[in-house]
């Protein structure tokens, strides 16, 4: 793992964070039915976390000498509340997996500060994933 590869991987992570921001904003708008107030609030709260992740990654990419991407990864299409929650769960689980791997790569590159930050992000994404999993656990429809 050299610095250029690490920058490329962080840029893929940044594209996913930009996508997560759009995904949560869109799903907050689309949530309907009796649980709309809670779902909408839940999604909007996530936007703030993902924005901080995106901000950190963009800064780090520049610090490493790279150019941050500005195009998000595609957002999963989802119609119903259940489909939206399932798409969110999949994205959050993927984020946990990606940042776990990225923290190892940061260690390999000797960047302890980045590794620690990425592990913090593993904790954040694990929290998002667990909350979403619990909402889905007794989902009525
Ligand atoms: Fe995130
Ligand atoms: Fe997340």
Question: What does this protein structure show overall?
Answer:
The structure is a single chain. The chain is mainly alpha-helical and 141 residues long. 78% of the residues lie in helices and 0% in strands. The chain has four helices and no strands. The N and C termini lie far apart (46 Å). The site of one fe (ii) ion (FE2) has 8 residues, from α2, α3 and α4.
Could you list some keywords that capture this structure?
141 residues; 0% strand
SSE blueprint:
Layout: H1 3-30, H2 36-63, H3 81-108, H4 112-137
Helix pairs in contact: 1-2, 1-3, 2-4, 3-4
What radius of gyration results from the CA coordinates?
Answer: 16 Å
Main sheet: strands, sense, barrel: none
How big a fraction of the residues is strand? under 5%
Order of helices and strands: HHHH
Give the ligands present.
fe (ii) ion
Based on DSSP secondary structure assignment, what is the total number of beta strands? 0
Give the helix tally. 4
Residue-averaged pLDDT: 97
Task: Report helical residue fraction.
Answer: over 70%
Shape: elongated
Q: How many angstroms does the end-to-end distance come to?
A: 46 Å
Q: Assign the structural class, choosing from mainly alpha, mainly beta, alpha/beta, alpha+beta, or little secondary structure.
A: mainly alpha
Give the low-pLDDT segments. none
Write a compact overview of the structure shown.
This protein is mainly alpha-helical.
């Amino acid at each position: 793992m050299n610095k250029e590869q690490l920058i490329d991987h962080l840029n893929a992570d940044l594209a996913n964070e930009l996508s997560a921001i759009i995904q949560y904003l869109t799903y907050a708008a689309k949530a309907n039915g009796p649980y709309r107030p809670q779902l909408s609030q839940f999604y909007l709260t996530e936007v703030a976390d993902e924005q901080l992740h995106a901000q950190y990654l963009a800064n780090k990419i520049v610090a490493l000498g790279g150019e941050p991407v500005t195009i998000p990864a595609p957002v999963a299409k989802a119609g119903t509340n259940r489909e939206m929650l399932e798409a969110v769960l999949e994205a959050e689980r993927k984020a946990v997996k990606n940042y776990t791997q990225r923290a190892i790569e940061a260690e390999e590159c000797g960047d302890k500060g980045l590794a620690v930050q990425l592990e913090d992000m593993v904790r954040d994404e694990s929290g998002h994933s667990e909350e979403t999993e619990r909402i889905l656990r007794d989902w009525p429809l």
